[in-house]
Amino acid sequence: MTDMSNTSAVFGEDVRADAKQIIGRYPESRSALLPMLHLVQSVQGHVSTEGIEFCAEQLDLSTAEVSAVATFYTMYKRKPCGQHLVSVCTNTLCAALGGDSIYRTLSEHLGVGHDETAGTPGEEGSLTLEHAECLAACDLGPVLQVNYEYYDNQTPEKALELVKALQRGEKPAPTRGAPLSDFRGAERQLAGFFDRPGGSYEDTVDGPSAAEETLRGARIANERGWTAPAMPDDAELPPLPEKK
Q1: pLDDT recorded at residue 151
Q2: Which of helix, strand or coil describes residue 85?
Q3: What is the pTM of this model?
């Protein structure tokens, strides 16, 4: 049985109201676990023991069930994050294009390694650095993300300039995606809430969504009249393999 006194001290009535709103989106309450964990991170900057207990309490799950999910996905942090989370893609292509050098430059500047924080977590200018597996932007590599927003075509020099700006309290505009928030603000968006103070939904999420490099192939095909062959209406589909 979860000790509700522990979670009540951390998660107030406003957070509980948000939790009920999240749960109401799903026919089965347990399906709300992923956004609930993001809600927890928007409050605490990580998934704490109290956060796991809170999710279990709200969703009528065991803490073991919640922990199994929270420890499976890398987006759920078990240690307090900085004001900003800097994720450097070091998968094969980005690494070959300079991702390893970018990570090394930032690590040396910040004096931290993977999943470590420079500064006091949550305070302005604090940064958590991490290696990231493929960020699905190979046409724009090497790339990094800040709070899951993209900064494309990076170099060690550009990445270092970006990080220094974040440390000064600035929020440089991402190459693509929404205006930069902080880590907790991004987590609130991932929980499904777009209520940036003084702004509308469009102010919170609007931004460039595609880069010139991504669109170039489609534009050339359109200019030259290239099209893919149409699928015949009577195309014969391959037989399904027999079940054994």
Answers
A1: 97
A2: strand
A3: 0.84
